[in-house]
Amino acid sequence: VQLQASGGGLVQAGGSLRLSCAASGRTFSSYVMGWFRQAQGKEREFVAHIRWSGGSTYYADSVKGRFTISRDNAKNTVYLQMNSLKPEDTAVYYCAARNSYQLEYAYWGQGTQVTVSS
């Protein structure tokens, strides 16, 4: 299984970015795809997840109403649309995958840096 994250960059506060996570190596229909982030000096934290089958989503309170997670079945890609970005959103963002009956994420992509300037 390979997860390839992309789309990070530098943006001003209030701006937007869209992260992508291209998944390959297996069928993900029974999987949950998640986004996490880790700011410098802090622990990694959950951002959002989406169930590949059915598309139900869940968000951390800190991003609810600003971020949207979605998936494109044809492209095997998961997106994280980030709007109204704040400096505190600055972090390395990671995509991850787990089987829906597991609690732990078994597969992780490399991180992509998101920097929000004030």
Describe the structure.
This protein is an all-beta fold and about 120 residues long. It is about 0% helix and about 55% strand. The chain is built from no helices and 11 strands. The strands form 2 sheets. Strands 2, 4, 5, 6, 9, 10 and 11 form a 7-stranded mixed β-sheet that branches. A 4-stranded antiparallel β-sheet has the order 1-3-8-7, with no helix packed on it. A hairpin with a 5-residue loop joins β5 (about 45-50) and β6. The chain starts with a strand and ends with a strand.
Helix content: under 10%
- By helix and strand content, what is the structural category? mainly beta
The span between the termini is: 37 Å
SS element count, helices = 0
What's the gyration radius in Å?
13 Å
Average pLDDT metric = 96
Strand content: over 45%
How can the largest sheet be summarized? 7 strands, mixed
Shape: globular
Summarize the structure.
The chain is 0% helix and 54% strand.
Tag the structure with descriptive keywords.
four-stranded antiparallel sheet, mainly beta, seven-stranded mixed sheet, 118 residues
Blueprint of the fold:
Layout: E1 2-6, E2 9-12, E3 17-24, E4 31-38, E5 45-51, E6 57-59, E7 67-72, E8 77-82, E9 91-99, E10 107-108, E11 112-117
Parallel strand pairs: 2-11
Antiparallel strand pairs: 1-3, 3-8, 4-5, 4-9, 5-6, 7-8, 9-10, 9-11
